Amino acid sequence: MYNVMIVEDEMLVRIGLKNSVDWSRFGMQVIADMPDGQSALETYMKDKPDVVITDIRMPRMDGMELISRIREQDRQTRIVVLSCLEEFELARRAMSLGVSGYILKLTMTEEEIASTLSSVRHELDEQRQDRPARVTTDTTTVPAAGLELVKEKVLKDFLLYGIYSAGEFEQFVRQSGMRLAPARLAVCVVELDQYARLRNKFRDEHGHLIKMTILNMLDEITTTFERGEGFYIDRTHYLLLLSFEDMHSEQQIRQQLRLIARQVQSAVYGCFGSSVSVGISKIDNAYKNLSSLYQEAQQMLRHKLLTGGGLLHEPDEQLDLAPLEQGLQQLRDHSPVKGLLSPLKQERYGDYIRLLTERLHEDPATMQPLLFQFVQWISTNLYEQHQNEKLLLLDITTELEQCDTLPDMLEQVSEYFVRVAEYAHSLLHMSHEIARAIQYIKQNYAQNISLQQVAEHVSLSFGYLSNLFKKELQITFVDYLNRYRIERAKELLIGTNMKSYDIAVQVGFSPEYTYFSKVFKKVTGLNPNEYRRQSLKGGAAFDITGAKRE
What we know:
Layout: E1 2-7, H1 11-20, E2 28-34, H2 37-47, E3 51-55, H3 63-73, E4 78-83, H4 88-95, E5 101-104, H5 110-127, E6 134-136, E7 141-143, H6 147-159, H7 166-176, E8 185-192, H8 195-201, H9 208-225, E9 229-234, E10 237-243, H10 250-272, E11 276-280, H11 290-301, H12 304-307, E12 312-313, H13 322-334, H14 343-362, H15 367-383, H16 397-401, H17 406-426, H18 432-444, H19 451-457, H20 462-473, H21 477-495, H22 500-506, H23 513-524, H24 528-535, E13 541-542, E14 548-549
């Protein structure tokens, strides 16, 4: 295998190139990715990679100087230049220094990259040089590019599954060169806030780019502080193992722990525009205590549910529930939807707020499914009033699913109630024709009705009624009918034991269950069975008396 070093100061470009190319296809492996020319030159002098792919404009040492310094050492290393259009003249100058090719960063395609790497591979084969770097331990020989994966596996086996003893883990720490002394250890668990939105923002469906970027950030930060290492736990959680054997003051260690955690927060925000929450453990000695430190850091991180994202959570943290209590009180006293309910239902609305307040103090985790049920109750009860039609357009399920803290959820519910009230009042101006069409849909939704049938019922043309739906409700007839049917299906899923495919037929969908499931997920963000499980989480649903109904 030929060894490759990528040099690029833009992290997303650097990590994206590293992880989007099937390097093995070209007989290559990436052994290093560096953010500037100076660190790249130091790595080059130590590891002598076969291929260097470098940007031109970088801090500390630019690409032109890096290429010149490499060429002072040898003419064999293959060099590829990453450039922008405005750097074309520099790229041409680089060619005179024995560069194998250049790639335009903003327009590079898989085909262009493949063509360039194939050409470089051909040159390397002709030189007949093959210098794979390898790391040797006492028990095995591990490729340099795979050492981090080995570390991650051993760490998880030790921390999470107890497969290795503390002694075996200590031996691995020595053999692998981990920066982790057994004295004055601490653990930080880092959680990406609102991960689904972050993944959607960067169109990173599998989260691979996010993962590699975060791991590189953690590596750079721990290297800068010269202590500990960072690891991947799962798609939303990362681990920092840190040791402070050179510090004897707990206060000093705590200060540096906060500094490192805030550096992680700053790096993630600078790169992704997103926040992270960090749970921090106490300080202890010996590898055998790492598991308990990890559990403690996780426990601290659970405080995020009550406090909101973007904070550090340490032992002895005093939780302030006043903001959540105030949020619930505002929903009780100032919610605009209360005025749309009957007096009896206003009382039941108050019962929901009372129960949510009790759960906040007794078992905060149960507030999440209860909030889902509360919103569904509001939607269903307003739905039977005459001011309700645009509620079909305002399904909040997706928004709540993407929230990972109670402050965020309460904010979403509050905003949802404001929008619902505004839309409900706007329906006072709904035309007579649309009102009659909607009434017909309500009475016949379980049948196989069409826009043509409804148009004939209200004595309008097919096209004119279609335009009225879009103008007054900002939705097509088919979407409106489907959403109304889904609302009825949601009630049956929660209130009965009917099979979901029987419910599909009962609310007017064809016996083809797949279509019903597809529409249901489009409207709610969940398939029918997931919606039922979410609404009846834990095998029982809360009722407004505070009891559970089986």
